[in-house]
Amino acid sequence: MTFHVYNTLTRQKEEFRTLEPGVVRMYNCGPTVYGRAHIGNLRSFLFADTLRRWLEYQGFAVKQVMNITDVGHILADADEGEDKIEAQARKENKDPWAISRGWTELFHKDLAALGFRKAAANPKASEHIPEMLEIIEGLLQKGYAYQTGGDVYFEVSKFARYGRLSGNKVEELDAGNRIEVREEKRHPADFALWKSDKQHLMKWTSRFGPDGYPGWHIECSAMSRKHLGDQIDIHTGGEDNIFPHHECEIAQTEAFTGRAFASYWVHSKFLQVDGGKMSKSLGNVYNLDDVLARGFQPRQLRYCLIRGHYRAPLNFTWEILKESAAALENLDDLVVRLRKAARGEGASPSADDGLEAVGEAKQEFEAALDDDLNVPRALAELFKLRTLVLEGQLGQSAAAAALQFVKKSNEVFGVMQTEEELIGDDVQRLIDERQAARKRKDFKESDRIRDYLLAQGIVLEDTPSGVSWKKKG
Ligand code: AMP
Ligand code: ZN
User: Fold this and answer.
1) Ligand 1 atom closest to Cα of 236?
2) 240 CA: nearest ligand 1 atom
């Protein structure tokens, strides 16, 4: 089987084919940096990271871009109203640039703590104003956009495919649903590409006037084009991004380039907390620090947020996190047991016992992820292996093969502790072995042991009273 992914645009699972063989261009709508990323945001971003990891597992070179929205995202995702970052700046009596800078830094720290692979670029909207204006000019020239005063709007009725992604019909789009009726608009569903507002704190001069700032949607069209080109393979976001954000991105980019923007539009479902919407008034908008304060590790949160299917709603409670942490502990234990069985401890007498089952688990694991990134089904294969090793059904070779596979599976999940933690007893045993090797003048072996320990962060020191050791760094 090859990778199949659910495309919101066609409403079906499709075989994944890249524009360029072996290369995936992927754009992820990133955070609006007016506050700390909450666990719901993190779920969306972790989905993108897991998808990338699965593509890399299969051998694709993934060019991943995740933007930082630091201007122009209006409260309620609409055209009119306060900029989220400026609203926060006013509330805190701070400079909006300081707000976005601070939260961007923290965002990167959160990603690092949660084991995200680094994107090729994390472009900031505020640093791509010329690229946005280039598209806006092009849209005006082609007749897809119109200027009224200092504002420029995209005229949705000019773009026949508008509504295809979200299923909305232009005729039915009226006030409400993140749509404003405004006098200067030709149709209520027309959306802002560029706005002028003297009160706006972050603003740029253009031929439309001195107080301009971009609409939220044009930012992603411009950043994606700048960093990945006119056409990309995958565009992701949370389900709320489907409309208006991604619908509008498609209209702008495709009207401008005359080509299909992204081959696959992939959206993750929202995270719920305590079975409902996260909300400040309920006090359940948690972030990574809240999770750490309760004594959990980042990787336990990571596991909790990736273990469900990305297209199924996921519920978060502290109890569920506790249960996830316990399940992850079982996966760590699987690694420990496989390592022992590979050395013969608790292994079935015949080395090849269970080898076929291990091969099947790997095949099923890959088939599950090939099937629209079915993480829960893939994880189930790892737990099957745990049962086999617990019951002593794996021979030494089978356990070694299983260990290799489980470690590889962790390239996709990034949650397990797969490196052997050397404990004091192990180190002492190795030191004794090294001394014995030196005595018999087997310096190759003694050097090998020293280098192995060094690789584990253990430094040996020869002292008159014997060999002592310490942890590096
Ligand atoms: P924002 O910072 O509001 O621009 O959102 C960043 C990303 O987080 C977007 O892709 C949203 O779709 C996603 N997101 C926001 N809330 C949730 C949630 N409760 N569950 C999952 N994803 C979310
Ligand atoms: Zn976006």
Assistant:
1) 10
2) 12
